[in-house]
Structure formats: structure tokens, C-alpha cells
Amino acid sequence: MLRIKDFNPKREFGENTISFVVDHVPERYLAEAVKVDGPQYQRDGFKLWLKFEKKENGFKIYRDPDAMHLVYTARNGEDVLWMNYQMTERELGIAVRMGRYVLNELEKPQGEQALSCQDISRQEERYSRPKGKMLKAVMVEHIDDMDDVQIISLTVGNVQERFICEAKSIDGDNYIDDGFGLWINHDKETDEYYVVTDGSDSQLYYVDNLGDKHWMQYLLAEQEEKEITDLCRSIIRSMEKRTGGFVKKEEVKGR
Asked: Whole-model pTM above 0.70?
């Protein structure tokens, strides 16, 4: 599996195209690089190129089934070899999340940007989070059905103790066990489901006893996000089969 080592924060080959330096490249693509540069080929010469489209509700990957995302740049810095490499769903998922992270940082004023290899490492840490620590969906609290997007408010459980302590420091004796939640957006045009992020690192929130939302620094692990978005997809599809509206607080336990 390809692994992201570094990234180019400049928007090359178009306004929202990001390149990532990768390693763990399969042997047959290394052989292609050797044909160009010989045994002294550039190990850091392999990059993934991803194009994004900016929409009202965030950056979306531009999906082209014929696109070649893996490229090798020769030692002379001029010759470029595009490779017909089909990314796995896991590779694509990680790269898309990283791309969104970089593009969202580029939207900030220069002094507020946090773009470094260390930031990439912190982002990737969540992909190895133990399964026992993963959030679990409890119920759909509400669904806002808008023209181009459905916003799903999801109550979650199995929250880590540090966030429970943070919530108790906010609410004191009025702390609410089921006050934790996520927002999941369903893009109607692309049929994509993704978790809403506040800033660059906050996807979990706590709603206090006054109804105010407090965002907490927590990014879902890949498997965690997949399970939750898959669940939301199944709920939306079951709703679409019905005539009329939806059940406002649809229990999702046991699904």
C-alpha cells in the first residue's frame, strides 16, 4: 500500500490539485523508474496527484476513472512518467482526507496555516486507532434536507474518557451522556457521504444543557468514518424507498 511521506502545498496543475510524495511503491512501478533513470532512480520521485473541486460545503475529489494519479519525475527534473496505477479504496480515502486537510489550511491566512510533515503525521495517526476506542452511532437526531445536501445529526457513544471529562467541565452536574454527536453530509450530486470538520481537526461535538455546541479535537479513524458513513447511507436509502418523510429519531443500535 502506498504511504504518504510529504506533500506539496502549492496548487500545481490547476488551482486545487495537490501532489503527495509517496513510498512503498509496488515493484513493477519501481522497474519503470529504473528504465528512465537506471539504478540511481529517485526514491522520492514518486508522487500522487489528486484534483479537487471546491463546492459550497467543502472540497470534493474530482473522480475520473481514466485518470492516472501516480507519476515519477526523473532525476533531470524535466521528464515525467505517468503510471497506470489504480489506487485502492483505502489509499484513495487517506489521500482524499489529506488533500482536504491541505486545501482547507491553504484557505486560511498565511500566519494561521499549519502545513508540515508533522501535521501530516498527526492526521495519519488516527488510521491506526484501536477498534475498541471507536465511536459508535446511537441514533439519528435530525436530518436537514436541503437543495444540494442532506445534513445528518448523529448522536454517538463509546466516547473516550478525556472528552467526557471535557464535557463535564463545561456542564458540571448538568452533563448529558448522550450529548455527543457528529454531522454527516450527504452530497446529493455526487452521492458522497463525509463527516463535517470544524477547523482542521474537530469532528466530534458536545451539546450542553443549554443547547450550545462545543467542538472537540477529534478526527475519526478511517474504519470509524467508514462504518458511520455506511450506516448513514443505508438510512438515507431506506428513507428514499418510503413515501413521505422520515422518522426524526431513528434508532440505529444493532444495525
From this structure: no
